[in-house]
Amino acid sequence: MRWRQIVRLRLRSLFFGRAADEELDEELRYHFDREIARYMAEGMSETEARYAARRTMGGMEQRKEECRDSRGLRWLEDLLQDVKYSVRTLAKTPGFTLVAVLVLALAIGANTAVFTVVNGILLRPLPFQEADRLFLISQVPNGLWFDPGPIMVDRDYREFRRYNQSFESLAALSSAAGRKMTLTRQGEPTVLTASEVGPDFLRVLRGQPALGRAFLGDGQQDSDVVLLSHRLWMSRFGGDSKAVGKAILLDGASYTIAGVMPATFTFENADLWVRDEFRADPHNVYFIPVLGRLKPGVSPQQAQAELATFAGHMPADRDFSGKGSVTRIVPLKDLFVAGERKLLLIFAGAVGFVFLIACANFANLLLMRGAGRQPEIAVRAALGANRWRLVRQLMTESSLLSVAGATLGLLFSIPGIRALVALLPPEEIPPGVELRADMRVILFAFGLALVTGLAFGLAPALQATRRQLREGVSEGGRSVLARRERLRSGLVTVEIALALMLLTGAGLLVKSFLQMRGVNPGFRTMNLMVATVDLPKARYQTAAQMRAVDQSVLAALASVPGVKSAAAVSFLPFGHGVMGDFQIEDGRHLPEDYRVDKPEISSGYFGTMGIRILKGRGFSERDDSVSPGVVVISESVARRLWPAGDAVGKRISMEDHPNAGDWLTIVGIASDVRQEGLSDRTGAVVYQPYRQIKMPGFIERMSFIVQSESQATAAAGIRSAIRGIDKDLPTESITSMGSIVDDALRGTRSQARLLTTFSLVALLLAAIGLYGVLACSVAERTHEIGIRMAVGAGRNDIVWMIVGQTLGLTGSGVFMGILGALALTRVLAKLLFEVTPSDPVTFFAVTGMLITVALLAAFVPARRAAGVYPLEALRHD
Amino acid sequence: MSRPTDLVQGTLDLLILKTVALEPMHGWAIAQRIHQVSGEVLQVGQSALYPALHKLEQKGWISAEWAASENNRRAKYYTLTKAGRKALAEEVTLWERLSDAISLVVRAV
Predict the structure, then answer these.
(1) CB A362 within 8 A of CB A496
(2) Does ipTM come in above 0.85?
(3) Contacts of residue A41 in chain B, CB cutoff 8 Å?
(4) Please, which pLDDT band fits residue A618 given cuts at 50, 70 and 90?
(5) What is the per-residue pLDDT for B4?
(6) Residue of B nearest to A3 (CA)
(7) Are the C-beta atoms of A729 and A533 separated by less than 8 Å?
(8) pTM for the whole thing?
(9) DSSP letters for A21-83
(10) A752 with A506: CB under 8 angstroms?
C-alpha cells in the first residue's frame, strides 16, 4: 500500500511534473486565501490582509522549489532534463550531430555485421546435447608428409576402445567430410555426401531418429543400413514415413533405411549416414576421425593424459611409422570451424580497428565541440553548475550520440551481413548456420555504443570543463589551446596508424590475388567442359570393365556435333590427386620428400587441355593394355631428375619392388601445369595412359573433358553420351574448366575484397578525422595566421604551414602504422600467395595512397587558411 | 532563508502526524490547529509546512486527496496512513525520551 503510493507519486512527479506543479499552486493559493480571510476576520481591510498574508507566505517560488525537491527522484528528473537539453543542443548543430552519428553508425554497423557472422559460426553451440563433452581423439603418427587432421590409425583405434576409461562412448567416422556416393533408382541418379559412421555414432552425439530406429550397437547383426538426413528425406523421398525399411541403391549396392534424423540434426554436410563397424583390414591402414563423449566428471586433461599413456605403451612393432605419435584431444567444435576460426578472427580484428578509428574520431569531434562551447560552459559554471553536473551533461550528449549511432548501425548491419555473406567464401559458412541479428548481436551493438559514449565521451567532457571560469569567459588561455591540440593530434595519429595497418593487410591480399590471377595454370581454361563420373564398385569390379566404359564414353563424345575434342583423366588439375613416388631404373633414389602427381589419361588429354609436348611424343591409341608400358613426364620432373636433358627413353616404375615387366618407358616430356592448384609451383606430374592401368582403384573415378565453343552443347553432349552407356551414372556435376580455376581464386578474392572494404572504411574515417582536426586548428589559429600575414607571410607560406602540419601528423601516423603492420601482417602469412608479409612494394604503395588521401583532406582547410584576411583575423577576438 | 534544522524538522513532522491523526485536514487547518492546541505558542509558517507535508506524503506516511472544504473550495486533505500511524508511535516515543532527557538535564542544575 505504502510502496504503491510512493511509486505512484514519484512516477507522477517524473512524468506529470506540470500537473503536480499546478496542484501545488492551487494548494498554496488556498492557504494564501484562508490567511487573508483570517486577517480580515481579525478586522483588517482587504488590502492590509493581503499584504500581511503575503508577508507571512514569503517567496512563493522558493516554497515551490522546496516542495519539488521533496518529491524525490531528483536525479532522474535531472537526467531527463539533461537528455532534453542535449537533444536541443544537438539539434542546433545538425552538421556535427550527423557526422558523429554517421561515423559511429558506420563502425558499429560493420562490427555488428562481423559479430553476427562470428556469433553464428564460432559462438553458436553445436546442435548436440552437452556438446562441450564431445571431443575428437587424435593420435597422429610422426613422420607423415601431410597433416591428416585429428585422426587415429584404425588398428590403434580398435586397441584404444579396449583401453579407454575416459569416454563413455566412442564412434569412428570414415572421414570428417564424408564421401560421395551415388543414389540411383530414386529419381535421377544423384551424388550424395555419405558419412560412414561407427554403430555408436548417435549414442555419442545423443541424437535420436525422428522416424525409425538408430543403428544397433557394435557386434550386433545390423549391416548395410543407413539413416537419412531430414533434407534428403524431404527432397528424394517426399517426406514419406513409409521410406523407413525401404531398400535403396547406393553406388549400386543395396542398403536399408533404418530411420530418418530430425531436421535439427546436422553433421558437416552429410546427406545420410551408413553404419560401418570399421573391421580390421590386414592389407590397408586407414586414418579415421574418432569421436568420443567424455564421462561425467572426467576432464579433457585427464582424457588427454590417458591417451598419451596409451600411445606410450604401444609396442614398437605396432607403431605405424616407427617414430611414435602425437596425441591430443580436440573439441568437436574445432572440426567444424577449423578453417573459419582464423579467417574470422582476422576479420574481427580488422573491423575492430575500424571501430577504434571511429572512436578516436568520435572523441576528436567531441573535443572540438567542447572547445567551441567553452563560453557556454563557462557561463553555466558561473551560474552555479558544479563540474560534475557539467560533465554529466556532456556525457549525456555523447551517450545520446552513441546510442543513435548504434541504432543506425544496426540498420546498416542488415545489408552489411548480406554483403559479408556474399563476400565470404561459401565453404566458410558451415551448413545449417543461420546468420541473423539475435539478442546477443543487439546487446553487442548497444554495448559497443555505451562503451564508446562513456569512455570516449569522458576525456572530452573533462577537458571541456577543466578550464577555469575566467579563461573561458575572456577567451584567453593559449596554453590550454596547445594542450587540447596535442590530444587531438595524438588521436589522429593513432587513426592514421590503424588505417595504414589495415591498408597494408588489404594491399597484401590484393597483391596476392593479382599474382594468383596472373598465374598461368599451364592448361587451357576456355571452352572446356568437365564431368566427373564415379563408377559404382557394385557393378564395375575390374579395371577392364572400367576402361571399356571410359572408351565408349569417349567414342560417344567424339561424335557429338560441335565437340572439337574429348579426353579423360583420373585426376583433374586443381582436384585432389594422389601424390606418390616411383623407382628409377638406374637405381637412383628420388630426393627426400619428392612426390609427383600421377594422373591416368586418355590419348587426347594433352591436345584437349592445350598441354604441349616438348620432347618425344604424347600417348596414342596404340598404347593399350597389351603394348609396352609408357609414361610422359612433366618438364619439371625431367629437369629435376635428368638435368642433362636425356630423360626420354629412360625407364621408371610405379611399383616399390618392380619386376621385369613393371618398367615403364618415358616417351615424352609435357609442359608444366599447376596440377595441385595455383600455388603448386613444382608441377611434378607423371602421366600414364589409362588403358594400361591394371588397378581398378586408380581409374574408378574419371573426369571427361570436352572442348567445344558452346557450353550448352558440350554439357548436353556429355549428359547424353554418359546416359547412353549407363543410365544409372549421375551427370549432375558438369562444370567448366574456367570455373574450376575461378573457384581456386575465390577464397583469396573474397578475403582481399573484405579486407579492402574494411580498410577503405578505415581510410575514409581517418581522412574525416584528419580533416576535422585541420579545419578546427585553422579556425583556432585564425588570429595567428592573421598576424603571420600582417608581418609579411604570403598565402603560399600559409598553405605550406598547413601542409607541413598535415605531413607531420601523417608522418608520425605512418611511422607507427608501418611498425604495427610489420608486427601484425604475419597473421596473414598463410593467406598470402607469393607475397611476403613485409612486401616492400605493398608497404610503399599503401603509404603513398595514405599520404595522398591525407593531402586531399588538407586541401579545404589549407585553402581556408590561405583565404584569411589579416584585418578581419586580427579583429577576430 | 535557511532550511529548518533536523531537530525542528523532526518535531514538525511529529506535530503534523499527530494533528492529522484526528481527522483528514488541509494544510491551512493543520497550521491553525497546531497554533490553537499549543496555546498559540507554535506558529507554523507555510514555508516549513508544505515541504514537510509533501515529504511525508512521499514517504507514504500521509496520503492526500482533493475535497471540498468548509468554505466550499477545493482543498487538499491529508490523512494519516497505516505506515504513518506506526511512524507516529515511534516519533512520539522518541520525542518523549528526548524531552524527558532534556528536562532531567535542565532541572539538575
Answers:
(1) no
(2) no
(3) none
(4) very high
(5) 39
(6) B60
(7) yes
(8) 0.70
(9) HHHHHHHHHHHHHHHHHHHHHTT--HHHHHHHHHHHH--HHHHHHHHHHHT--HHHHHHHHHH
(10) yes
Beta carbons of A31 and B60 less than 8 Å apart:
no
* Residue A342: band (very low, low, confident or very high) from pLDDT cuts 50, 70, 90: confident
> Three cell numbers at A731?
551427370
Q: Cβ B75–A56 below 8 Å, yes or no?
A: no
Q: Is the pLDDT of residue A621 over 50?
A: yes
Domain B6-108's class?
mainly alpha
Q: Which residue of A has its CA nearest to B60?
A: A2
Q: Which residue of B has its CA nearest to A31?
A: B28
Residues 6+ apart with CB under 8 A from A345: none
CA of A380 vs chain B CAs: smallest distance (Å): 24
Chain A residues at the B interface, defined by Cβ less than 8 Å, are 1-3, 5-6, 9-10, 23-24, 26-28, 30-31, 33-35, 37-38, 56-59, 62-63, 66-67, 69-72
* SS3 of residue A261 by DSSP: coil
Q: Answer yes or no: do B28 and A3 touch at CB < 8 A.
A: no
Contacts of A27 in chain B (CB under 8 A): 26-27, 50, 75-76
Phi, psi of A269 (to 5 degrees): -105, 15
Q: Are A259 and A225 in contact (CB under 8 A)?
A: no
Nearest-Cα residue of chain A relative to residue B51: A67
Which chain B residues have any C-beta within 8 angstroms of a chain A C-beta?
1, 3, 26-28, 31-32, 45-47, 50-51, 54-55, 57-60, 63, 66, 69, 71, 73-76, 81-83
pLDDT in tens, A283-311: 777 888 999 999 998 999 999 999 998 88
Res A438: pLDDT: 79
Q: Give, for B28, the enclosing helix (H) or strand (E).
A: helix B27-37
Nearest to A686 by CA among A533, A592, A578: A578
A174, A288 Cβ separation under 8 angstroms: yes
Residue of B nearest to A70 (CA): B55
Q: Kindly indicate the confidence band of residue A322, based on its pLDDT and cuts at 50, 70 and 90.
A: low
Residues β-bridged to residue A196: A274
Residue among B3, B46, B57 minimizing CB distance to A31: B46
Average pLDDT, whole number, for chain A?
85
Q: Evaluate whether A831 touches A748 at the Cβ level (below 8 Å).
A: yes
Under an 8 A CB cutoff, do A30 and B82 touch? no
Buried/exposed A738-767: b ≥16 CB within 10 Å, e otherwise:
bebbeebbebbbbbbbbbbbbbebbbbbbb
Dihedral (Cα; A853, A856, A858, A862), 10-degree rounding: 160
At A520, list the grid cell. Answer: 598461368
Chain A nearest-CA distance from B60, in A, is 5
Chain A residues touching residue B54 (CB < 8 angstroms): 24, 67, 70-71
| CA triple A602-A607-A631, angle to 5 deg | 50
Of A364, A359, A358, A351, the residue nearest A502 (C-alpha): A351
Distances (CA, A) of A25 to A65, A504, A844: 11, 69, 74
Q: How confident is the model at residue A473 (pLDDT cuts 50, 70, 90)?
A: very low
CA distance B52 to chain A (A): 8
The pLDDT of residue A96 is: 84
Write down the H helix ranges in A275-331. 300-312
Spatial separation of the C-alpha atoms in residues A587 and A577, rounded to whole Å: 26
Residue A34 pLDDT > 60: yes
3-state class (DSSP) for residue B67: strand
Domain ranges in chain A are 2-72, 131-337, 496-521+739-877, 540-727
